[in-house]
Amino acid sequence: MTRRFWKRSEWLGPLGVRLALASILVAMTSVILLASLTLLLTDIDLTNANNEQEQASTTAIVNSVRATYLRDKDRDWKPRDLAASRDLVRAIGVGVVIRANSMIYLLVPPSVPGGTVKTVDIRVGPTVIATGTFTFPRNGLLPEEVAFRRSIETSVLVASGLALLVALGASIFGTRRIVRPLRVLTAATRRLATGDRASRVGPLHTTGELVELGSAFDTMAGQLEVEDALRRSMVADLAHELRTPLSVLHAQLEDLSVGNTPLNNQAIVSLSEEVHQLTRLIEDLRVLSSAEAAGLTLEMAPLDLAGVASNAAARLAPQFVQSGVDLSVQFSPTNVRGDAHRLEQVIVNLLSNAEKFTPAGGRVRVVVQPHGDQGRVTVSDTGRGIPLAELGSVFGRFYRGTNASGTAGTGVGLAVVEALVSAHGGHIYLTSTPGAGSEFTFDLPLVERNELPPSEPTPH
Q1: What does pTM read for this prediction?
Q2: Are both 353 and 379 inside the same structural domain?
Q3: What is the pLDDT of residues 292-328, one digit of tens each?
Q4: E-strand stretches of 259-312
Q5: CA atoms of 325 and 354, how far apart (whole Å)
Q6: Is the dihedral of CA 175, 178, 183, 184 positive or negative?
Q7: CB count, 10 Å around CB of 8?
Q8: Cα–Cα distance between 157 and 149 in angstroms, integer?
Q9: Do residues 127 and 28 share a domain?
Q10: Domain extent for 61
Q11: Which of 4, 60, 222, 401 lies at a C-alpha separation of 20 to 30 Å from 377?
Q12: What is the dihedral angle through the alpha carbons of 294, 297, 303, 307, rounded to the nearest 10 degrees?
């Protein structure tokens, strides 16, 4: 018995067993209450009917005796005169004793021994002509009425048993409908916890909140799978990006150590460039991680975004001249609140990215101006552009598009841009046409001009 119950428990699961037992308990309570109420109401109806029947029987017998008296009172009525009343009493099935003038005029024993006794004075006007003692069956029920009540009890018990069986089947079926999706979810969660990122719930063949829960789980698992793939890719890309300058450093230092390369300014500059590339990569990663983890400290203050953009353009002007790309600017006073150093880093990254993917003879333009209640910076170029399928991935860390082959870089710069703009409470947008160029735009909330420090110049 224990083994069979355990197998059923496994079939339903612990939660299913509890739900099924709770459903059965509720069903049993409901059936018992309904059966009890049915029997109680039946008893009340039978009792009322029998009270009415007793009253009607008593009245009929009394009227019969009174009629006999009124018919024969002039000739001094006798017990034999009550023959019609005796037949009536026997037809009704009650016990009756009629006494008059210290004599028993009518005696009919009850059909069932014992019972309820009631005495009634039989009057004609104010005169008591006789006394009637009536004996009704116990509990006021005649034998046929007792049989009727037992048939009702049997019917109620049978119906209650059938109702319990139906409730048992319905509770097990309903519990299975609830528990089965939960067990599928549990199994999928366990697989996901053991590292199976492809674990999915799939169709649950149910309705309501469980379908929403399964869909949410699959969405979460899919996101985890994507993030896990990105993490592995990031680690691989990071290892690759670090390995390249480290390998160059190692080779150059080895050549220097064995005397294959003379230690001159050219060698020192080459080593310095590789160290600078490593330093820049590590700093970009630090900024990116801090911004994404809300751990980046920003020195927020009112500033003119045009002045920040002017400094960034001045820093990169020699690089544009060297690459043969025309850099034009259009600045209007644009007062925002932010970290001047980090915002300059954002604009430098955007300008550097535009210069990198714009061929010689092309143009890069940076515009700073108010736009509604936002300060807007737009960096546009006439470079290669970005394929439509890649637009959603441009701001991903270590992402290098199909047009980036043969171009130096780590793929971290635009991820840093998005993280820093978001840390300032701003938004960045990208539009691009392959072969025609790209346009990066970010907005920051404006502040009043009088919030700017008095000593800060506003470029024109």
Answers
A1: 0.47
A2: yes
A3: 554 567 889 999 999 999 999 999 999 999 999 999 9
A4: 301-304
A5: 10
A6: positive
A7: 13
A8: 12
A9: yes
A10: 2-144
A11: 401
A12: -100
